[in-house]
């Protein structure tokens, strides 16, 4: 029963995502692209936060690095888009940052880890902010051109076409992340989350498992950075900033840590609220801050779990006896 | 954040002047960071509270001091106002939110205090605008001192003295008073400290308020020197966190040493390699962590 | 003919925590297949010894050799791979995970499955059928989908032993396995431990003297971190120092 329900839910969601651009004005299609991009970001953070128990306030480091690599290649090197190279370089650079950072950082305890990751990503922000010659400094790098696939006549400058481009990568990423999380490797992450000492005494090289998870999560975050660079058409230091990392974290918590789909929902909610509220007031940051606080106070298990709990309660009502 | 040192310079005959000026600037900035890092390290190391709004306390305190100075033309009233206002704010925030059960875990605190950071940041921009402001120095401390070829402002000297005084006060507090003993023992063990008859909740509230108060005070004191601008809250929070990481959570000595180190690195970094000054701070942090993962004076 | 290699050799092991001397110059040997009980009053250093043997805590000085290898500086997981297994005094299971998950994690620890990023856990048929056998044998099969924190305390202790046995370790460190159990449950444990095959070497810490002397072939008595006595149960019981300090007062079942 449970599985067919889930399958039905997924099918409806898939249909929804595919058909939406045909039903809504292009503004919403564009917004949905952004939501899918951040959904990948949030889901990748969930691998660390929800499944391994490694909270991070520096996840933007991976998104931002990948975005900047794409920006630099696109604007300065190729002077146009060379998609294959940019995609691989973006993801690879995120992996390298994670590989280096992981060596320094993963031996530390929880609170320390949180702060060191935050400091590290803000360091990268600081570098991007000041580095005018390569990264454009606080102005960022404008003029990123989207990929152009002449063979399929896919013009990604258009919002709708770009949306399907993003949807394609979102689907691939979501499926891959689902597989990772349900793999035997993913299983060990759960164990680490629950009790590192037990895992050690069982014989697991806990540090190595965490290191691999860290790099894998970074690669998916890097993918979201690549897509974001194309979406915006520019890169700015904000992509590396604590604010972006924190947004990712709240998307995970609000949606439901450790569920993978929860964070995707969280991404949708946060971005919709941001967009909606900023139409009415320029003080949307206060609302966002309030959301952070209220989420922790009232829905720490996340909306997805809340939703499932409600479904359980109402099941007797519609299930045929 | 501008740190214009007088006599910053070209090499050659003025190199000595340059070095000494940077050292003094570094110490001055380090003292400011120390005020901030103290609160943070106490909150982290002793109370296990992650307070990402700490930089916001600094900024808000500075802005409040600015307004008071503007109205009363009295710098000392501004200082008093800044630190009282933020001390009280800290107390209120602790009692109403951070002490509660939902705020037990580090992650919850991170998100709650980050939410506060956003709220306070926006409020500051709303009330005081987006243009950078500076608090005028008190007339008593204006002017410069000449020491041989070196020229530097009296105000900065005063800041160093204030920093030293506060260091002594905190040292006395931690080593010589009853409350300090509790802080040293770690307020975690509630059963044990309850058995000694001390109101642990009161102690925790006091410590949190002390931290907030120092941050607010630093905001005013740093006003003439560093200025007040949008984004300063995050920048200075970042530096304070690096200081705590380097110095070790919970260690006041670590906060002092770390703050001075970062102040010096920042000062030299900004004048020698302005584009990558943040990188030098990062490098310092990485080096320390590689040698001692829990910080120079850290215990875990 | 070569003498059989000792399972465990501990030489002059010491550990200081700040100013506190938790262990001081502790030395002893354990033959393969032997059952050694470690007793001593609270704070004698028994758990510290286990922490050091399993690799969770580093010693201040001294050497440890297991199966002929110097493992003094080895990380915990390497020792586990060598064959050292451990149960914990305070239940250290994966509380939010199911019984089956706990067992699978114990079993996956030695293979390459733990690094396979894409193959679903559910596809490991061999692992699952092995787990099924183990759970059916111990009567926990129908509890397999229940989160461990919902099990009774006795069932949790039982699961701890099951996990350890499923890993085919050869040197078992059992830290207070009967802690908190009723007398019948404790007796059940004693018979399980007594039925371990001879290729297991067992080190046991337990407060219950009945349990200890039913299982032990050798006894090590620790007092304030030092070795007070080491020998067969009779020798130790007969040791006047031991009687004075530890046993003589309430346990007359010698």
What does this protein look like?
The complex is a heterotrimer of chains A (321), B (300) and C (254). Chain A has helices spanning 2-23, 26-52, 60-77, 83-105, 110-130, 132-135, 159-182, 184-194, 196-202, 206-232, 242-255, 261-280, 284-298, 303-318; strands spanning 141-142, 148-149, 154-155, 234-235. Chain A is mainly α and 321 residues long. Chain A has one domain (26-318). In chain A, the strands form two sheets. Chain A has a two-stranded antiparallel sheet. In chain A, strands 2-3 form a two-stranded antiparallel sheet. In chain A, helix 2 runs parallel beside helix 7, helix 2 (26-52) crosses helix 11 and helix 7 (159-182) packs antiparallel against helix 10 (206-232). Chain A is globular. Chain B contains twelve helices and two strands; from the N terminus they run H-H-H-H-E-E-H-H-H-H-H-H-H-H. In chain B, helix 2 packs across helix 10, helix 10 (232-247) packs across helix 11 and helix 10 (232-247) packs parallel to helix 12 (277-291). Chain C has 254 residues and is of the alpha/beta class. Chain C folds into two domains: 1-83 and 170-182 and 189-254, Rossmann fold (3-Layer(aba) Sandwich); 94-168, no CATH class. In chain C, the strands form two sheets. In chain C, strands 6-7-8-3-9-10 form a six-stranded mixed β-sheet, sandwiched between helices. In chain C, strands 2-1-4-5 form a four-stranded antiparallel β-sheet, covered by helices on one side. In chain C, helix 6 (183-194) links the parallel strand 7 (171-175) and strand 8 (201-205). In chain C, helix 3 (99-108) packs across helix 4 and helix 3 (99-108) runs parallel beside helix 5. The chains are: A mainly alpha (321), B mainly alpha (300), C alpha/beta (254). Chains in contact: A-B, A-C. At the A-B interface, helix 5, helix 11 and helix 13 of A face helix 4, helix 10 and helix 12 of B.
């Amino acid at each position: 029963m449970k599985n067919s329900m889930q399958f039905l839910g997924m099918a409806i969601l898939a249909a929804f995502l595919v058909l939406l651009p045909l039903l809504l004005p292009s503004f919403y299609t564009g917004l949905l692209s952004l939501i899918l991009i951040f959904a990948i970001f949030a889901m990748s953070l969930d691998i660390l936060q929800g499944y391994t128990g490694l909270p991070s306030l520096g996840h933007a480091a991976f998104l931002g690095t990948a975005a900047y690599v794409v920006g630099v290649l696109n604007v300065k090197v190729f002077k146009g888009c060379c998609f294959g190279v940019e995609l691989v370089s973006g993801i690879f650079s995120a992996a390298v940052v994670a590989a280096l950072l992981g060596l320094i950082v993963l031996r530390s305890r929880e609170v320390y880890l949180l702060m060191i990751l935050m400091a590290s990503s803000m360091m990268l922000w600081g570098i991007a902010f000041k580095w005018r010659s390569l990264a454009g400094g606080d102005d960022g790098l404008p003029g990123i051109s989207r990929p152009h696939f002449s063979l399929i006549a896919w013009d990604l400058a258009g919002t709708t076409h770009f949306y399907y481009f993003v949807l394609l990568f979102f689907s691939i990423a979501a499926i891959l992340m689902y597989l990772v999380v349900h793999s035997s490797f993913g299983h060990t992450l759960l164990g680490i989350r629950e009790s590192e000492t037990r895992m050690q005494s069982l014989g697991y090289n806990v540090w190595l498992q965490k290191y691999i998870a860290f790099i894998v999560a970074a690669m998916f975050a890097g993918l979201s950075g690549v897509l974001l660079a194309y979406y915006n058409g520019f890169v700015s230091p904000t992509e590396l900033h604590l604010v972006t990392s924190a947004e990712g974290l709240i998307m995970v918590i609000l949606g439901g840590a450790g569920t993978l789909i929860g964070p995707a929902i969280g991404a949708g909610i946060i971005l919709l609220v941001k967009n909606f509220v900023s139409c009415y007031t320029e003080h949307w940051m206060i609302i966002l801050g309030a959301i952070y606080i209220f989420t922790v106070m009232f829905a720490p298990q996340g909306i997805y779990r809340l939703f499932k709990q409600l479904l359980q309660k109402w099941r007797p009502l519609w299930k045929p006896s | 954040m501008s740190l214009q040192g007088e006599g910053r310079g070209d090499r050659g005959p003025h190199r000595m002047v340059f070095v000494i000026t940077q050292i003094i600037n570094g110490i001055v900035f380090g003292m400011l960071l120390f005020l901030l890092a103290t609160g943070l390290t106490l909150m982290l190391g002793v109370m296990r509270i992650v307070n990402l709004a700490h930089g916001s306390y600094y900024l808000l305190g500075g802005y409040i001091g600015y307004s008071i100075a503007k109205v009363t033309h009295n710098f000392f009233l501004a200082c008093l106002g800044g630190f009282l206002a933020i001390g009280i704010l800290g107390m209120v925030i602790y009692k109403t939110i951070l002490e509660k059960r939902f705020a037990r875990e580090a992650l919850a605190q991170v998100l709650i205090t980050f939410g506060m950071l956003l709220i306070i940041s926006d409020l500051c921009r709303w009330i005081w605008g987006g243009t950078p402001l500076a608090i005028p120095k008190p007339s008593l401390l204006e002017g410069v001192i000449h020491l041989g070829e070196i020229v530097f402002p009296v105000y900065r000297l005063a800041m160093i003295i204030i920093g030293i005084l506060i260091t002594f006060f905190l040292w006395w507090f931690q080593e010589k008073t009853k409350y300090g003993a509790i802080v040293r023992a770690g307020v975690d063990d509630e059963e044990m400290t309850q058995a000694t008859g001390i109101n642990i909740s009161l102690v925790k509230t006091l410590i949190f308020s002390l931290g907030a108060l120092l941050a607010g005070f630093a905001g005013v004191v740093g006003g003439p020197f560093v200025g007040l601008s949008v984004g300063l809250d995050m920048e200075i929070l970042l530096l304070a966190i690096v200081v705590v990481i380097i110095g070790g959570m919970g260690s006041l000595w670590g906060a002092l040493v770390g703050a001075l180190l970062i102040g010096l690195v920042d000062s030299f970094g900004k004048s020698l390699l302005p584009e990558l000054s943040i990188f030098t701070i990062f490098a310092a942090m990485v080096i320390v962590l590689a040698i001692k993962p829990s910080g120079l004076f850290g215990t875990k | 003919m070569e003498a059989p290699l000792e399972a465990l050799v501990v030489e002059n092991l010491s550990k200081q925590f700040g100013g506190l001397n938790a262990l001081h110059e502790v030395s002893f040997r354990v033959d393969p297949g032997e059952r050694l009980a470690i007793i001593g009053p609270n704070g004698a250093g028994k758990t510290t010894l286990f922490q050091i043997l399993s690799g969770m805590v580093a010693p201040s000085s001294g050497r440890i050799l297991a199966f002929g290898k110097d493992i003094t500086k080895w990380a915990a997981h390497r020792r586990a791979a060598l064959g050292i297994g451990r149960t914990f005094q305070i239940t250290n299971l994966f509380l939010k995970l199911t019984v089956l998950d706990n067992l699978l994690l114990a079993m996956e620890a030695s293979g390459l499955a733990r690094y396979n990023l894409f193959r679903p856990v559910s596809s490991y048929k061999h692992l699952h059928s092995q787990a099924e056998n183990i759970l059916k044998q111990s009567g926990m099969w129908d509890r397999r989908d229940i989160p461990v924190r919902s099990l009774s305390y006795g069932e949790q202790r039982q699961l701890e032993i099951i996990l350890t046995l499923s890993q085919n370790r050869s040197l078992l460190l059992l830290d207070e396995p009967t802690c908190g159990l009723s007398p019948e449950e404790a007796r059940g444990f004693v018979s399980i431990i007594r039925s371990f095959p001879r290729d297991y070497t067992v080190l046991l810490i337990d407060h219950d003297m009945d349990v200890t002397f039913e299982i032990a072939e050798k006894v090590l008595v620790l007092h304030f971190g030092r070795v007070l006595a080491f020998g067969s149960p009779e020798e130790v019981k007969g040791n006047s120092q031991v009687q004075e300090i530890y046993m003589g007062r309430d346990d007359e079942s010698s």
